[in-house]
Amino acid sequence: MDAISATLTFLWEVVGYVEGLFFKDLKQTMKKEQCEVKLLVTASMPGTKTLVVHGQNECDIPTQLPVHEDTQFEALLKECLEFFNIPEARSAHYFLMDKRWNLIHFSKTYVRDIYPFRRSVSPQLNLVHMVPEKGQELIQKQVFSRKLEEVGRVLFLIALTQNMPAVHKQSHVSLLQEDLLRLPSFPRTAIDAEFSLFNEPQGKELFGLDTLHKVLWIKLLEEMFLGMPSEYPWGDEMMLFLNVFNGALLLHPEDSALLRQYTATAINTAVHFNHLFSLSGYQWILPTMLQVYADYESNPLLRQGMEFCCRHTTTGLTKGVSAQCLFHLLLCLEGETQDALDALQLVKADKPLRSLDFCYGNEDLSFSITEAIKLCVTVIAYAPESFRSLQMLMVLEALVPCFLQKLKSNTVTMETASAARDEIAAIAALATSLQALLYSSEALTSHT
């Protein structure tokens, strides 16, 4: 296992120097040599259907256990402890190990990820007694090696995609996309994290490797997206790929390298698939972005990163965050936002970035809270009985009190006559909008 990890860590570095290396040919060759699973993250192999577990004593009758797609070693261990009559109080002292390779298994690992299906052959495991501390140490080393293997496989595909000749790029990424969609374990394997091991003695190293793993998956999908036609007819399958972005951000939101890659990838993806994102694409990423923004409001770097990302993608709204947090995020869109993560360096689109919405043309794209309130009023007045109208009413309920408080705060801070006049003018404009809302919406006024 260590040899495989070591090989994968440098294999990706030589890919760029090999001419005529194509994904389709590699798949066929590796499949023939029975090493596809070890070298490609896209390898799709059915998992084993059964496992045989041997007890501590040679005289113990082994047990054969069924395995399903979602079976973890944790469930198998529990069944083995019951079968061999081991008291629950002693369960922490027992572990499952591969009989052939003598490798210990982490309880949260999926069996199908370790053992592919082989006709008339069932993997053989041993139930071993071990000091819990020693068992956890071996598990942590094994998980680290497997994660390092996965990092090498992702790096290999990134290097292969980046060095693919332009004439073959589209067919390459199309095949990559198809393989990922057929993979039963995708996107799970891309966002899996061994949380229970992060607090162990070597937990910091494993946490760092897991963060790198998530960054590389974002990078791989970005390379795939940018190699596809911008008019690609995406359906709901797009959600599977964007879930990798969302999962990575939720798992490691305070890692600046991941946040930088996420920001740049989100902008690159939105610009490349502008037809999709100008209509519905943002509904798949904005809820996660806003939730992270709200949960880590005290982290200035994260806030600036999310504000910059929103500034250069869209000003979508969603529920699930506090009114004050949503107001602050919209407020930051009124002016220029700082690229604290230097994410624009990774953005491949022409700069300065422009709006993705085709309806704006050459209009002034300046944004203000007042305009947001007017937009909500327009949506409600257009179709007051619609569900969207109800959502806009909720947004108004959140924004208006914060807006009034902000006007008051500005006047108190400046203590000038002009500030007071500005506050009066803003309140008058707000009153006009809300009055127009009531006059034009019979469905609302009939209930007042």
Description:
The protein is mainly alpha-helical and 448 residues long. It has 18 helices and four strands. The protein has helices spanning 2-14, 23-32, 36-39, 73-83, 132-162, 166-182, 188-191, 203-226, 238-251, 256-272, 274-277, 286-295, 300-311, 323-332, 369-382, 387-414, 417-440, 442-445; strands at 50-54, 63-66, 94-98, 124-129. A four-stranded mixed sheet has the order 2-1-4-3, covered by helices on one side. The longest helix has 31 residues, at 132-162. The model is unreliable at 315-319 (pLDDT under 50).
Give a quick rundown of the structure.
The protein has 448 residues and is mainly α. The chain has helices at residues 2-14, 23-32, 36-39, 73-83, 132-162, 166-182, 188-191, 203-226, 238-251, 256-272, 274-277, 286-295, 300-311, 323-332, 369-382, 387-414, 417-440, 442-445; strands at 50-54, 63-66, 94-98, 124-129.
Question: Helix share of residues?
Answer: 55-70%
State the low-pLDDT regions, or none.
315-319
Rounded mean pLDDT is 87
What's the story with the biggest beta sheet? 4 strands, mixed
Note the overall shape. elongated
- Give the termini distance in whole angstroms: 71 Å
Write the H/E string, N to C: HHHEEHEEHHHHHHHHHHHHHH
The DSSP helix count reads 18
Biggest β-sheet: strands ordered side by side in the sheet: 2-1-4-3
